[in-house]
Write a structure and sequence with these properties.
alpha+beta; Ribosomal Protein S5, domain 2; 6-stranded mixed beta sheet; 13 helices; 12 strands; about 35% helix
């Protein structure tokens, strides 16, 4: 894992890229609802929601919690609570299902979540006080849990967007918070939270193997409920998202490396939420490259990070959380098939994108890989198919790609003539 300093630097870089706004210039703390262009389609809806500006809030948390990164190792932590009761609010934090919705719908989901904030040192996860204990207990739930939250002042929407996590609504400091219903906690979650001898990485992979959703695992990990007792910490939500992607990927890499290569070149793609993810798998030992392109009208050279067969030990600074968010689905796909391949992942972001976090890359990659592959005998044919599925010209992608240059310079044994 990367250091807190790496995490803060990466967060700042990713926010600047995601929130490419003339008003705030990428500094989300300068965002104002009245002028934010990302909120134009929901501004009228938001201003009519007086229930989002109450200091005494009662509602069914999806469940959801948020841990900030600013000021680390002293961070702001608290639950996300909508002023909604007697209805299923689980969709508000179920990013695995959001490809089925339009961007303004998802933004409305998230802006209806009022964020309570309490400053805590990250080590306090081990011995939580009353507020943090409630946050942790609610985070374990598998179903919405009725929550009452008293705030110090009227919540305001000052910084809804973050680099990797979905946005949230108005926020204010917590005075008091209580659960008004008993949380429904899966038995496996309860067992691993109670077991303070299991390493966090083992707990994460165990929960995923027991069909606990990745968003739920990330939430539980973030509020400091997994791992050995003396090592439990609050982990900023943005860092937790990438950490869980990385942990799940690492658990699969050995299986993939021991598997036979795929025989052909394969192309997959999916488009949604103003993004396209296209994946090229090629017959090689596992290696990976992620490339991301924004502002396509400016004819950009995409940014990229990569690893060869030995893997990488440093954080992918260029594309950040998008790297592990797409690498993990590729490894899942290959492990499920019992095959090995190298992978090039192309990510395009279109002008109507609203910053909603890296979940969209993960889910688009999974959606793409769930479709039948377009298979080709040669790299040239596969590249042509990639070009048909992307808006940015292929030559732009190839200017950025390290692995493509490597592939072009490689010759396979079948390329050599047979000498009799």
């Amino acid at each position: 894992m990367f250091s807190p300093e790496d995490g803060i630097r990466a967060t700042l870089a990713e926010v600047k890229r995601e929130v490419a706004c003339r008003v705030c210039g990428g500094d989300i703390k300068r965002c104002k609802l009245a002028v934010c262009p990302y909120l134009r389609k929901v501004r009228a809806w938001f201003t009519e929601r007086a229930d989002l500006r109450s200091t005494d809030l009662f509602g069914a948390s999806p469940p959801s919690a948020f841990v900030g990164s600013w000021g680390y190792p002293r961070v702001l932590v608290g639950p996300l609570v909508p002023p909604l009761r007697d209805q299923d609010t689980s969709i508000l934090d179920a990013s695995e299902t959001w490809l089925a919705y339009e961007l303004p719908e998802i933004l409305r989901f998230r802006l209806s979540l009022v964020r309570g904030k309490a400053p805590r040192r990250v080590v306090e996860a081990q011995e939580p006080d009353a507020i943090l204990s409630v946050v942790q207990e609610g985070a374990m739930a598998a179903k919405p849990v009725d929550t009452e939250m008293w705030l110090e002042k009227t919540p305001t929407l000052t910084s809804p967007f973050s680099a990797r996590a979905p946005p949230s609504g108005p926020s204010a400091d917590i005075r008091k918070v209580e659960l008004a219903s008993n949380p429904s906690v899966p038995r496996r979650v309860d067992d691993l939270v109670s077991d303070t001898d299991v390493r966090a990485s083992e707990a994460v992979t165990d929960l995923y193997a027991h069909d606990v959703t990745q968003s739920a695992i990330t939430r539980i990990f973030s509020v400091g409920l997994l791992g050995e007792k003396e090592r439990r910490r609050l982990v900023p939500t943005e860092w937790s998202i990438t950490a869980v992607d990385d942990i799940l990927g690492r658990a699969l890499i050995g299986r993939v490396r021991d598997s036979p290569w795929i025989p052909d070149y394969e192309v997959y793609s999916a488009t949604g939420l103003a993004n396209t993810v296209t994946i090229l798998l090629f017959p090689q030992a596992f290696m990976f490259e992620g490339m991301e392109a924004w502002n396509l009208s400016s004819n950009p050279t995409p940014i990229h990070d990569h690893e060869f067969t030995t893997g990488r030990t440093t954080y992918p600074d260029a594309i950040g959380g998008a790297y592990h968010a797409t690498k993990n689905p590729v490894l899942e796909h290959l492990a499920r098939r019992g095959r090995q391949a190298g992978a090039l992942v192309f990510m395009e972001v279109y002008d109507d994108w609203i910053p909603l976090g890296v979940f969209r890359y993960r889910e688009l990659a999974r959606a793409a890989l769930a479709k039948p592959a377009a298979r080709f005998a040669t790299l040239e044919e596969a590249e042509a198919e990639v070009g048909r599925r992307m808006r940015l010209p292929l030559e732009n992608w190839w200017r950025a790609s390290v692995l493509r240059a490597y592939l072009r310079g490689q010759r396979r044994i079948t390329d050599y003539p047979v000498v009799v």
